[in-house]
Amino acid sequence: MPSMGYFIKSPNLWRELMKPQKAEIIRSWDVVFPNDANPLGTMFGGKMMAVMDKIAAIAASHYSGTIAVTASTDAIDFKRPVKVGDRILVEAKVVWVGRTSMVVKVNAYAENPRSRTCEHCTTAHFTFVALDPEGRPTPVPPIWVETEEEKRDYQEAEMVKRQALERRQRFA
Question: Is the C-alpha dihedral spanning 75, 80, 81, 85 positive or negative?
Fold first, then answer.
């Protein structure tokens, strides 16, 4: 009879024993202050990317049950400016899972605090790798995809992952 150490050191067998799981939406609110903005009074793109990356990391770590680090991002399109004083809602969800990597879809919305109107401003996909305590890639549970939206997100994330691998090969 193999010891438990055998199972832990055998990533393929370990993954086979994992049950597929549903991914949860992780939400976070923030507010845009003057030090987050350019001279036009709109949020720096890099600041928005940092906020999105942080929430995506929380979603990936929550899903995998371990530390997850950013491996890549796809194009981030800023659909509308976010102004000083706006509140931003960021939603992140794991939408695709490989053996040790996950793609997290992140949407950001800007809410005007006076009118309380909320508009979608940014979407991006972040790829994360789950790490074990020694900092090596570790298997993550398969994802349970059920709804039509989840299926669309999964297919879109597969394309994002494929494009990231192609970029990596071009620059290797």
Answer: negative
